[in-house]
């Protein structure tokens, strides 16, 4: 059976053999377009709906998608293609071989063309490009204008234009300048800002004997760029203009081979001074003493393995490499060669062409330069075999581009710069360059903008460096801007940079800008990695584990996208956290750029990405809570999305949930704020309350209150009464801990009313329990008892761990009322429930509180036994706060029995914890007890 093929390089189409397939209704073709857009990958219904209906889907969109997918299946089955449309939950996948989709075949032809050209076979490259361009039937995804399609169409159109330029360049190489001129004229009119087309047109005109017209093209281009963009032509166009002006004979066409380079007769060598091609050193180069020392040591190594300087865009790799190369040049009497590999351009330079340039630099001329890549590389290695030469390869795209340029012996040294980690370059040693230290940043600012200005406004200078993220390019641009505006104070620039929304735009001077530097790196990413990069900017200024990229992309595992961002130096590894996860961050300016770039994505897609990440945080927090003591403060489950990120992500937190919470404390607080910012009120309150057991365990009341207040504003705005009730319950508890009992009572009463209105009896019971605690601590024991009993009535045995906690509270109330027998019964029942449910933390808390009953009865031995059992349990669970309360109780019992040394040791250990937590009441209680004991510690001030 003939295989079905599909086309997106024009209107959506399908063929069986040479017969075109009709897919029926237009909407059915649009569904097929969505599947082809993500061929081989899962596509959720929301994405399909976006492609089919754009921003105005019908209410029945999900059902219609199911119908259209079913119709497509039937059409394809009739054609004998089998079940190539697969279902997976709410997603679909179109299973295709590469040769079944024209855009994949197009890409394969391009790869073949570039390989042929690199191998010195331009005619074969031209045939492959002809085949690639012959697949196009019109604009890609013709007739569709949904957001995802527009992005893919732009990418494919850019690839098509690049292929057209490559084909025209090859035809010029083959001497067909007369026949390509009409096409170049038409394309230059259609794409007036593509300088490479203008360059090819100038060359074709020159070779056709029309030098004046070629020069006129340059003048026209210069005016156009100045008017439209305010910039000058690029270096390639300027260089060609100069060569045409001097009628450089190397520009003459030689069909079938590259034009000869200027410089003398073919094969000339010997008698020439060694080439010294290093670019001019940066006169105001600043800092980097350690990096320069490292490079000096590596370049002096007799073995001379390649040295790769890698780093993020704008970090100063090239400036460092040029300074290091100049410093080491004296070690290489046979010359210093330099190549710009253009790895960050849309067309990185092919090794074959660069080898020709290197051969000419060492004296090989014209026809003596062979055609093939391997032959050129062999000749190059042969010429350098006995020479001591330094080679600086700037802006490498990848190891494939670099390998053919490496000398064959250890006499030569090679220094490479790249934004990519060239880990597959055998034997290479790497130096990763980071941002400036603050002192280096200030020094560069002073050198470029003026030392006096920096001395006069040191605080503003430091702020400018900080807003630039200590990125050398950003600081240089900002300093140059100040240098060109001597009337500005540093505060003017500082205030402009303080506005995060305009910061990237401000960091531009002349034709140098931070934005352009970033765009180059991002343009080289795959679509998935670029989308991940943009989405990461939405998460705010914090470190993050690598798993977040999966939910951002809507995938379970996105390690390949993470690796791509790391290899491109767009992410920084900041270390490994306490549970063994690698942590990453975006440089501040890269994050600003990513946020701006994300504006081009549909708002709904951005909101879904954020919601998925927050849903994963929520899922992990709930998993971690399973390893913490059960608390009456738990708010129950809401309706927010949970996104399990996978067992590999969950596994590290299970044995050490406290360490996981310690690590993620700041990101989780940021997640609450992010949910609030995006109007995700349900996620906001659930995330805030999910961290309460941890906050309670650690006594972290500041973060607890901050997160709850942020979430509370979101739920109140959204009219989310259950979320408001849960957050008020948590805030009421914080106010109890801070002894603000009036505010606590008001907050808990409102929480109870809201829970009651929502029909949430468990939530209402927890609010009543909180009120009981507030009344007990203020001596209103009858009110406390009434609220506690009311809470137990609402629970009615449905939540025994919480019931155990409330019964223990009743025991404390009865003990405070002097009704010891009743207190004993409540403690006993609380202890039984805690043990039956396996709640070791609650069991230890009951033992600690019951010790007061033993003291009342004069049984110090029983009191100490209960306290020591409780202490061992709390220590085993690493609950420092409960350990401290238990130690304080032990100190009281030891003091009553006359054991002053043990009493003092217990109290001093407890006070260390209370001081750290800022628990002034408990510190004061400890000081009073130490005062009774007459110890020196009693005189120490509270800290």
Structural overview:
- InterPro entries: AAA+_ATPase (IPR003593), AfsR-DnrI-RedD_regulator (IPR051677), Apaf_helical (IPR042197), BTAD (IPR005158), NB-ARC (IPR002182), OmpR/PhoB-type_DNA-bd (IPR001867), P-loop_NTPase (IPR027417), Sig_transdc_resp-reg_C-effctor (IPR016032).
- The protein has 943 residues and is an alpha/beta fold.
- Among the domains are: 1-174, Arc Repressor Mutant, subunit A; 289-433, P-loop containing nucleotide triphosphate hydrolases (Rossmann fold), CATH 3.40.50; 438-516.
- It is 60% helix and 7% strand.
- Strands 8-9-10-7-11 form a five-stranded parallel β-sheet, sandwiched between helices. A three-stranded antiparallel β-sheet has the order 1-2-3, with no helix packed on it.
- α11 (289-299) crosses α12 and α41 (880-896) runs antiparallel to α42 (900-917).
- It is elongated, with a radius of gyration of 36 Å.
- The chain starts with a strand and ends in a 10-residue tail after the last helix.
- Residues 254-271 and 936-943 have low confidence and may be disordered.
- Nearest-integer average pLDDT: 86
The end-to-end span amounts to 84 Å
CATH names the topology of the domain at 1-174 as Arc Repressor Mutant, subunit A
Largest β-sheet summary: 5 strands, parallel
Percent strand equals 5-15%
Q: Please count the beta strands (DSSP E, at least 2 residues each).
A: 16
Please, what is the CATH homologous superfamily of the domain at 1-174?
A: Winged helix-like DNA-binding domain superfamily/Winged helix DNA-binding domain
Uncertain residue segments = 254-271, 936-943
Strand order of the largest sheet: 8-9-10-7-11
Radius of gyration (CA) equals: 36 Å
Query: How many DSSP H or I helices?
Result: 43
In which range does the helix fraction lie?
Answer: 55-70%
- What is the molecular shape? elongated
